[in-house]
């Protein structure tokens, strides 16, 4: 088993164990709801838009997205863990949403539908060993002007140690904090989005322990140019 395969298996088992309490534990982090709202706002959604959410979990972002796209829009929620998707399906049925499709898949292997209007990843992207690859593939599938937004955790640049530990405490549940710090996945996200997207922006949150990265596919980007960053996936 490769290191990446081992990481995936660990994530699946961890999220299976935490799925039942995920929504409750998310509420305990006081800034999460506001940050999720800011991330969805950064997508600049309009009624009828199509959205792919990578690492959708239990669907905590679905209500925020639905408010923007309405019943004529559509959402594809992608997650690696069956237990998280089961919770997401329950949320869909409770709310009577008919425009959401759930897909169990690794984000690095998911075939993004061509021409999607927006892609979102919150608090999950930096856990993926191939996070840069996912950015590339998603950017290649976006429609002209389509938006890619990542909300995630990072190590602050100049922050007291006790505050940094508090801000990134959630990362401890998902693997080795030391390994995550050494790997510094937020830097891969920054480079990949800056390389593949126009009007790239980066906003530090919560004393630098979290961030929102956002960008658009430029109107002049061709499919050939997109292939240079990542393959253009066929609709699933």
| Average pLDDT taken over every residue | 81
Count of the domains: 1
Structural class: alpha/beta
Radius of gyration: 17 Å
Topology, element by element:
Blueprint: H1 3-18, H2 22-28, H3 32-42, E1 50-54, H4 62-69, E2 74-79, H5 82-95, E3 100-104, E4 116-122, H6 131-141, E5 142-153, H7 161-167, H8 177-183, H9 185-196, E6 198-205, E7 210-216, H10 223-229
Parallel strand pairs: 1-2, 1-4, 2-3, 4-5
Antiparallel strand pairs: 5-7, 6-7
Helix pairs in contact: 6-9, 6-10
Describe this structure in words.
This protein has 236 residues and is an alpha/beta fold. The protein has a single domain (3-217), classed as Rossmann fold. 42% of the residues lie in helices and 21% in strands. The chain is built from 10 helices and 7 strands. The protein has helices spanning 3-18, 22-28, 32-42, 62-69, 82-95, 131-141, 161-167, 177-183, 185-196, 223-229, and strands spanning 50-54, 74-79, 100-104, 116-122, 142-153, 198-205, 210-216. The protein has a 7-stranded mixed beta sheet with strand order 3-2-1-4-5-7-6, sandwiched between helices. The chain is globular. The two termini are 27 Å apart. Residues 171-175 and 222-236 have low confidence and may be disordered.
């Amino acid at each position: 088993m490769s290191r990446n395969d081992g990481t995936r298996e660990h994530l699946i088992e961890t999220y299976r164990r935490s799925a039942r309490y995920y929504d409750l534990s998310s509420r305990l982090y006081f800034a999460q709801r506001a940050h999720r709202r800011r991330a969805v706002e950064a997508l600049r959604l309009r009624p009828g838009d199509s959205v792919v959410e990578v690492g959708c979990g239990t669907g905590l972002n679905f209500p925020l997205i639905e408010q923007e796209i309405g019943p004529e829009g559509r959402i594809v929620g992608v997650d690696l863990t069956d237990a998280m998707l089961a919770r997401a399906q329950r949320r869909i049925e409770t709310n009577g949403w008919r425009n959401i499709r759930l897909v169990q898949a690794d984000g690095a292997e998911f075939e993004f539908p061509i021409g999607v209007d927006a892609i979102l990843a919150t608090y999950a992207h930096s856990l993926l060993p191939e996070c840069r690859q996912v950015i590339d593939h998603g950017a290649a599938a976006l429609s002209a002007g389509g938006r890619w937004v990542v909300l995630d955790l990072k190590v602050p640049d100049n922050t007291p140690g006790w505050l940094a530990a508090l801000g990134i405490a959630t990362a401890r549940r998902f693997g080795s904090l030391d390994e995550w710090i050494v790997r510094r996945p937020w830097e891969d996200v920054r480079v990949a989005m800056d390389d593949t997207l126009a009007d790239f922006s980066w906003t530090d949150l919560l004393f630098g322990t979290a961030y929102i990265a956002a960008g658009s596919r430029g109107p002049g980007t061709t499919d050939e140019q997109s292939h240079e960053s990542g393959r253009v996936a066929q609709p699933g």
